[in-house]
């Protein structure tokens, strides 16, 4: 049963100056940190020394009253709310207080008041200290002059129920205070969230661990050729152990204008304002030519008795060259109209299938190919008989993006099961519409109608194991991912397959890493070779790139082949989190500790 959380909506007093908010990020040493060691954690509640108190006062006394100061744990804060209250009347401060009377507390000083927010989603270390979870989450609701924002405490950022609650209030700034060694994972979270929540994200950690960062929903600031930001707009990052004091101006006014422009004018306005290359937001903020902005509507549907190897499936994803965008436009996304081009293309696909089966037979330990995955809008429908024959001959489930049917514009993915009767296949229809769907020409105003789907499909075998499928821009919508994974009280999918034809493979890579942990599942991404980013991701500690089991870069034709260990994933889901400190699988996200529902409460301060 889910725990009910009071969602306290308070009036924001965090004012903009010339449509900007200045955030001062302080990554300071805690002089206490010992991650994973109970004795070290207990030290966080020790009384601060006079030198530590003097240091803390020095950090805050010269901060402008309009700035937001964000810091992680400092020993002068713990058990000493007066340390922050002294500044509450004049400044805006967010600071992690640590463990106080069996609560893990964040102090939020703003508008002349000091708020205590008790941590909702507890990590195993919190349990070791006998901490009790909070029952309230604050959202500071803005207006024309003030920012809409919220604050999360470390492990809360892993919890999808909390993220969805914040998303519904369209916050403009999310602050995450951490005391956490998993900074790489939190950066991937932030890169995914600035896109899906279309807001700024600020993460702050202690100096000994590093990993503080500031993320914006822009790819570029300025008109110069090299004025680009990294994936998903990382404005600032402090990787590694260091003490850092940095100030950044967040363009909240620009974000608001972009939200309004996308809602009213949609795709044609994707061009940057003042040289900003914007990360296209979800449909919540976007008028998609023939549908008004809002949360896409779709219901989950479970397809039972769909047999598949849910123990150790072998999966192949084909990252191959597609036909040109000009061919798609010329044929109306019906590739068989391309005559000679498509004939040669199908010959290449046949050769790739033969090559793949040879690889499977020549493996050191030959195994059946359980899944074959191909990109979005990739396979001509005239090639379907060959895919069905391949599926039956090799006992393989085929998941492939198809070109449009003859009778209507629709972006579909076929799911072929080898044991289904001849001609019986399942189609998943894309629920959302991106700027690349149903283009009439290169003119962004020239768009054709698109028939959208209304169902999210879960394929479940007799053991209760499930996989699901999404198509490209569907994956930009946290609402759809959450509904597919958790709708109707379901457990998260064992595998999520995403077929795409997406120029922003680097962004979706971050989303895959973030979601593979937040839902504790394997994710298979399959993109076209031009854009790259195909791979298999899991909540595992892998050498090199953590959580990446297999991936292919941009501009490379390749077929990835990997065997998953889903039995172990399910076993780890059922294992106590404090037993996952070491080993191949990561510690679990918030939804595996406790599920939340939210009750809105208006607070008059």
Number of helices: 13
Please identify which CATH superfamily of the largest domain we are dealing with. Carbon-nitrogen hydrolase
What's the CATH class label of the largest domain? Alpha Beta
**Average pLDDT, to the nearest integer?**
89
Largest sheet: 8 strands, mixed
Strands of the biggest beta sheet: in what spatial order?
12-11-10-9-8-7-1-27
Tell me the structural class. Answer: alpha/beta
Strand tally is 27
Task: Assign a percent range to the helix content.
Answer: 10-25%
Strand content: 25-35%
Please state the second-level CATH architecture of the largest domain: 4-Layer Sandwich
Return residue spans where pLDDT drops below 50 for at least 5 consecutive residues.
269-273
Instruction: Kindly identify the CATH topology of the largest domain.
Output: Nitrilase/N-carbamoyl-D-aminoacid amidohydrolase
Organism: Massilia cellulosiltytica
Protein name: CN hydrolase domain-containing protein
